[in-house]
Fold:
Amino acid sequence: MRGLRRRLDGLYPGPGSGRNAPGPSGSAPEPGRLPPQAGEGAVCSSLGLPGPRFVHQAKARAPTRHLPSQATHTCYMSFGPLGGGGSGESREQLCFLLVPQKGDDQPLRPVFFLLQEDYDKAESEASKAIDKDGGDVKALYRRSQALEKLGRLDQAVLDLQRCVSLEPKNKVFQEALRNIAGQIQEKVRYMSSTDAKVEQMFQILLDPQEKGTEKKQKASQNLVVLAREDAGAEKIFRSNGVQLLQRLLDTGEPDLMLAALRTLVGICSEHQSRTVATLSVLGTRRVVSILGVENQAVSLAACHLLQVMFDALKEGVKKGFRGKEGAIIVDPARELKVLISNLLELLTEVGVSGQGRGNALTLLIKVVPRKSPKDPNNSLTLWVIDQGLKKILEVGGSVQDPPGELTVTANSRMSASILLSKLFDDLRCDAERENFHRLCENYIKSWFEGQGLAGKLRAIQTVSCLLQGPCDAGNRALELNGVMESVIALCASEQEEEQLVAVEALIHAAGKAKRASFITANGVSLLKDLYKRSEKDRIRIRALVGLCKLGSAGGTDFSMKQFAEGSTLKLAKQCRKWLCNDQMDAGTRRWAVEGLAYLTFDADVKEEFVEDEAALKALFQLSKSEERSVLFAVASALVNCTNSYDYEEPDPKMVELAKYAKQHVPEQHPKDKPSFVRARVKKLLAAGVVSAMTCMVKTESPVLTSSCRELLSRVFLALVEEVEDRGTVVAQGGGKALIPLALEGTDVGQTKAAQALAKLTITSNPEMTFPGERIYEVVRPLVSLLHLNCSGLQNFEALMALTNLAGISERLRQKILKEKAVPMIEGYMFEEHEMIRRAATECMCNLAMSKEVQDLFEATGNDRLKLLVLYSGEDDELLRRAAAGGLAMLTSMRPSLCSRIPQVTTHWLEILQALLLSPNQELQHRGAVVVLNMVEASREMASTLMESEVLEILSVLAKGKEGPVARAAAASLGKAVEYGLIKPSQDGE
Structure:
């Protein structure tokens, strides 16, 4: 028993006792020994466990009476040491001694369960004792120990505080309370740290019992938010986060996979070394394979992750194989090619979803071609053509429905066409293009020859894919022996799929005028026959589009009609009918839009189309649907309806010369005149065209190509042409949609969008049109219109728009300066065209409020100040107003410039006098302010002015009506009086 007692060193005696409590002779009892003169229950007391009779006696005593330790030796037990060491035999002996046998042994039960490490039952038994007697300090103390072991420190500290309040001098309670308070502080510190948050979130996410709970959802959101900050991403990465995220991906649960993928985006974003490490842990093949899952959201998230990885690796290639933090890592170009190679493999894998295949193509479109033709290195494009062109053609040539084929969608095939077009456009020389043609032709021949009917269908589908993308390659493929003949023959097939493939190929082949004439001669009767006799709407609508395309071969030339008068109107009517048919799927209705895109070259069709509100609403609704391949056709139809394509009035002399030479002269349709166009624009606005186009701009799809963006920019520019229509465009979100169009796309498209932005900024409050931070994004497109390659109208509108922006805030002025607009604005101040010169001067006047611009005028060796002084004396009143305003601003901000005005020109005094004598109040005010600034600048300058006729003019102005001019004149005279240059009149004036 002595050995057993030694294990209970955590015992503390009761009130008034403790480590320094005196024994009978003033010394503490020896640890582990029974105290001398111990009464009944001494064994239990030596164990820190009062016997039953002692408990009853203790209850009978007054609670405030403290007896000597020799008499009672009431002990409180700390079970810290019992949790770990000790032999099993000693534990069994102790437990045997403490086994409660009777109902009145309630105080022993918590102790027994604590020794058994059954803390839940210990807490329960102690709670029962406390329910009977709320002042039972032993039960409170034991419950606090059980709660501490259960990790419920917040509840344990409440019990200990209760113990201390009942027995304030008990050092055992005080020590235990200090210990648990320290644990709580450490836990709070740990839980507030990022490491703890990361660990806690992963525990929740990987806990199978938390499936589908709100707690799990919040943990996933917090993890994603934490990863967006660089410090948080680094913490997750260093806390074995990638391996834990891999476990989340392995669960297969969409929500957990989304959380993992979005967190990985934060880890890899703009950090090359973490990207390479992540790919090493997860495996490139594993990451790419997630693209192919059926869940659309997961596939898109994987696409975004791979895009971020590509960006990080490509940035590393530019920076010489170094990551963001400067650590030298493996060659990122190799990792880049491994990723692209896996994407190419994914394209032809069976079992990959159509959505995943489309996302893989989208990634290749974004990362493979050069961003700019100025970049001389197109080696990645050449490598992809050599390694993966056949795989891309296999996707583009797949037929959608037959079993055994790859799972593709219409969007997938369109993406394949766009990728092929991008790759072809990225080639630099004829040898590279010839290699591209050769590979395409070899692939088509391999299917066309010796593969039977199925092979011919695939070959024709591949040709269609090429015709929608790199049309030069498609046209060369059509010229292969037997291809065009097979297309015509299969149009007459009785099998629906064969007819579909052949008719679509015929439609795409009719794009070239030479071939359109051939098809008109040989295929029109066949298309008409299909349209009239086929029972399948899918065939009929495609045949109709073929007829529409052939009927519009003359374009906008009114004199070139392919069909008889009225035929195009009948075709358009049928297209509108199918477009409005909600029973048809979006993929089939798309072909009706394609037909209208061709037919709207005819002004009669345009007029009927904009009058049909149901057709317009159906068109706009379809543009907002998931059928992304319809976007280009919608944009083309809108361009035709608004006449926003480039059109130049022919020179009358050249027209006469062409007629004399018996050459064809294009004729404009009478309904394409400006009055008809304005009426169509208003009808489109009333139907909600702006909201539909705004949705189109937001589309995250490769189908929204640079060419499609250019078409949308053209339409927007046509919509804002009339001042009264601009409010409607802004109200429907046009201003927001124009910014991305002005920042990305073709040069023509960006210029058109920037010009539309300028028009909106001129006539409406920019703070309302572009709320928040968006207003600062407008500056760069506007500055781009100042380049010399833009038209005079575009220069003028950009200057006016920048003038409005510069007058709003200093931050906007700084943004204009940062875009290096000041030199260009100064250049336009010398422009011969008076309106451009005036607009540039007004813009400079507003920019003069910035310190940097003031420094430019104050610097020596330039004629900026001289130009403003001279312009203040010009005949153009608006130019004078702008120049005088700038002069007044500069002399107010920089008094040192006042003394330089007489030095820049000998006519300065005449110019100031002319401003003061002007009948225009605004010019008078500006002149008076300049004079006041000069008078206040120095006594010498004031003396010069007072000796001239300026004194008389100021005297007259000061006696005039109350206003800013009179006040400025009076202030000038007052300052002259102060200098002693003049004396006030007798009446005090």
